[in-house]
Structures are given as C-alpha cells and as structure tokens.
Design brief:
Blueprint (H helix, E strand, L loop, with lengths): L2 H27 L10 E8 L6 E7 L2 E6 L6 E5 L6 E6 L6 E7 L2 E6 L4 E6 L5 E6 L7 E3 L4 E4 L4 E5 L6 E6 L11 E9 L2 E8 L4 E5 L6 E6 L1 H4 L10 E8 L2 E6 L4 E7 L14 H8 L2 H23 L2 H10 L12 H7 L2
Antiparallel strand pairs: 1-20, 2-3, 3-4, 4-5, 6-7, 7-8, 8-9, 10-11, 11-12, 12-13, 14-15, 15-16, 16-17, 18-19, 19-20
Helix pairs in contact: 1-4
The structure holds calcium ion.
C-alpha cells in the first residue's frame, strides 16, 4: 500500500473517529439536563429523638405527627418540630409494627408492616375509632385530596378509597427509560403548579423522587445524601420522613436520626427530562441509536473498500482515471531510491 493511500486511510479513520465520538458524546449528554436543578436546601436543623425509628411523618396544624416502628417500640406521637419535644404519644403492644401515616378528616390513618391492618385514630385524643384490612405489606401512605396513595415496598403504589380503603387503581413508578423503581417507601402528596405530585423516598437510598400520580412517571430526583451523611449511624437508619409544610418547604428526618431538617426543595413542579434511576449504563448505551452505529460502520467499510480497490487497479486504468482527473501528480519529479523502496513495501 502506498504512503499516500496509507495516509488517506489514516486520515479517514481519524475523521470518522472524531465524528463518531461527537455523536456518542452528544447523545450521552442529552440524558441529563443539568440546567434544571432539583436540590434540597437546608433552611434550619432541629432536634429529633434518635430513639424514634421513623416510619411516617405528617404536618397538621403546626405540629408534626410521627409514627415509629419496630415490634415492642412502635408509637404514634405529636412532636413540636422546632424543639423536637414530644407533645403527646401513644404506644402500641408488641404485636404492632407501625408504618406510614396520613391525616384524613381529623383522623390519622396508620399502616402496619405485615399484619395487614390500617388503624384509624381520632386526632383529638389519639384513640382508635376504626380500622381497615388490606392485602400485602404496608409501607407509606399519603392522601392526595381524593384517594389514599399507599406503597408496599415494591415499585407499585395503590390508590384507595378514603371511605372503604378498597383499591381504585394501581400505578407502577418508573423512570424515563421505563425502569421500575423498587422499594418505594415513605410518601408525601403535594399539589404543585404543574399538578398533583407524590414525593417518595426509596428504601436505603439517599434520594427523594417526585412522580406524577396519574401514570407513575418520575419527574424529579433529589439527592439527600447531605442530610443522611450527618446522621450516619447504621445501615437501617435511613431517610424515611417527609412532611409537607407549604409551597416548597418540608420537614425531613429519618430512622433514629438526631436531627430533623426544615428544607426547601427547589423547582418542585419542574420536570426533569430523561431521569435515570436504575440500569443507567444500559440506558445510556441504548440511547446511542443502533441505526447510527450501523450507518457509521457501513460508511467506514465503503471508504476502506474504495481505497483498497484503487490499489488493486491495473496501471493503465489508474492512469486513465488519473488523467481524467487532471492529476497534478503526473508532473512530479522522478522518485528517489528511498521513495521507491517505501512504495514497494
Ligand atoms: Ca409523609
């Protein structure tokens, strides 16, 4: 192969490599739009009883209502969020493992983990007035104004009648690439300018997701590691309490955390494009169009084939083609011995 053609092939390879790299980079950077910021900003830090294995958190008339779990330690309590002081508390017997809570019509609904019972307590005196039965596990619950939204530790959440607790519909929570988000835990229902939203933390992950309750699509992903890292005292002691105050302000705490945080969640109603929560490497790979790869591959083969074919052409055909192109190479001075040696390699 001649030095000219070898250089031509090398140049072609370099140009196509640059084009290919640009395509890959352009497609990858389109997955995350960093211009939209979803951030949890800490406004102030307050005391939280670190013996509280927080399972549910709800704001009502200026107080925090908190359920705490574990058999033998479960409770329902009213807490002053600014001081952490317990205003009143109700303890449960060893058969109850408290889970998420929500407020509905001056009552508190409290799920249990595996016993498939939701208790209903009077807000005034925390006495039990009724209960519901359900199938499966109970994890988190919130009231969206029409229905209870309930998680059970999977990627699905059920919407239930506030009158009968019967399931009205079920949605699966998934990111922009259709990856189901497992272990949906504590919930908080919020109305935003963009419509109703549900905030959820994923069990044992330092993040809070926002999803559209109409279809389960995740539209916001908040990193909460700066809260969790200050309360890092065991792998079970994860973020697990989200209570809406108003607008974009929330109280957030976790299991056995010694702090509760007043925070602002920026851009709550702004939807992120192309959120990836799980299997993100596969999502990025698949985001590079198969057609693009095939097209580029074929292009490289065609160009290399043309160059190789030219090397194999008879000399007379080459000269005809060369003269037809008015190639200036015809008037070059004779080759030196050194050049000839290289041409014959
Ligand atoms: Ca909540």
């Amino acid at each position: 192969m001649s030095r000219t053609r070898r250089s031509g092939l090398l140049l072609t390879y370099l140009v196509l490599s640059i084009i290919f790299s640009s395509l890959v980079q352009a497609e990858n950077t389109s997955i995350y739009d960093e211009s939209i910021e979803h951030e949890i900003v800490i406004l102030s830090e307050h005391n939280h009883h670190n013996e509280a294995f927080t399972q549910g958190l709800e704001m009502y008339n200026g107080s925090i209502y908190e359920s705490t779990g574990l058999y033998g330690h479960s409770s329902l309590r009213e807490v002053n969020p600014w001081t952490g002081d317990i205003i009143r508390s109700k303890s449960f017997n060893d058969s109850v493992f408290s889970e998420g809570i929500t407020v509905y019509n001056d009552t508190i609904i409290m799920l249990t983990w595996e016993t498939q019972i939701a208790y209903v307590f009077e807000m005034d005196n925390l006495s039990q007035v009724s209960s519901y039965e359900y199938e499966g596990e109970g994890w988190g619950i919130c009231f969206d104004g029409n229905s209870f939204v309930m998680s059970n530790g999977t990627s699905t959440v059920s919407f239930r009648s506030p009158e009968t607790f019967e399931i009205e519909r079920i949605v699966s929570v998934a990111d922009s690439f259709g990856n189901l988000i497992d272990r949906i835990n504590e919930l908080e229902c919020v109305n935003t300018p963009a419509g109703p939203r549900v905030l959820a933390n994923i069990w044992q992950q330092d993040r809070i997701l926002v999803f559209d309750p109409s279809n389960g699509t995740v539209v916001g992903d908040y990193d909460a590691s700066h809260l969790s890292s200050k309360n890092d005292n065991g792998h079970n002691n994860v973020l697990n309490g989200i209570a809406h105050i108003s607008d974009s302000e929330f109280w957030i705490t976790g299991k056995n955390w010694s702090s509760m945080y007043l925070v602002q969640m920026t851009n709550l109603s702004g939807a992120e494009a192309n959120i990836c929560i799980s299997h993100c490497e596969a999502a990025q790979d698949s985001n590079i169009s198969d057609n693009s790869l095939i097209t580029i591959g074929v292009l490289i083969l065609v160009i290399m084939f043309i160059f190789l074919r030219r090397d194999d052409m008879p000399a007379d055909k080459k000269s005809v083609e060369t003269s037809n192109r008015h190639d200036e190479q015809l008037n070059l001075p004779p080759l030196s011995q050194e050049d000839k040696g290289m041409l014959n390699d």
